[in-house]
UniProtKB/TrEMBL annotation:
Pfam families attached to this UniProt entry: PseudoU_synth_1
Keywords, alphabetical: Isomerase, tRNA processing
GO term, biological process aspect, one: tRNA pseudouridine synthesis
Protein name as it appears in the record: tRNA pseudouridine synthase A
CDD domains: PseudoU_synth_EcTruA
Protein source organism: Actinophytocola oryzae
Amino acid sequence: MEGGGLVRFQLGIAYDGTDFSGWARQPERRTVCAVIEDTLSMVLRHDVRLTVAGRTDAGVHASGQVAHTDLPAAPDLNRLARALPPDVRILSIQPAPEGFDARFSAVRRHYRYRVCDQQWSADPLRRNDTVTWPRPLDVDALNEASRLLVGLNDFVAFCRRREGATTIRDLQRLHWTRTGTLVEAEVSADAFCHSMVRSLVGALLAVGEGRKPAEWPASLLKAETRPSTVTVAPAHGLTLVGVDYPPPDLLAARAEQTRNLREHP
């Protein structure tokens, strides 16, 4: 329970990022945060501000985004669905456990990247969330290179640096699978820097198509700045699919620990 009769709620959110300029509010641009905040404010007649688990870039999708906000009451999901545009939905809204912070309490985020490496078989119904790649990809080479990147590292070579923010991250999973002509990467970490997943994918695709050796992406971990040789993969292949949190009794401690780490690199 917050001051003034407000209750903290946890929101589960999904969106098609195609026509959004990312999550965060930007002047004169359509963003996921602005659409949801403005819609909730209108429905509840209360000024709503969201804290989110991860701010996605323009064109990136989500099926498992998590946010929190302090509200006087939970709105009806059907009423919200009627008020929201069809490319964004609030899938769940429930009172949050004590100490919950959607951003700082999270212990890991999960992303999926989808690539079709045969242009003739690209599914037109999945064109908004699957990248069509012009050359065949070697999944064994992709996984060999990916294994060398997993662990606690400074990923400055794969991040767009933000002033005062650390680029040290614990990359816990990076694995590729093939189903026919569809190649998918599953990527999990405690947190991600700006453009980190797409930069990792861009470097790995160069390995998968045979332009770079398997050791090349990991060799970039020695860099002190972002090299120009790293290509950022297209945004529309990326989807935030889930966020993990600790048990309720550890939420507040996790939030304090993470806040200190992120704000004081």
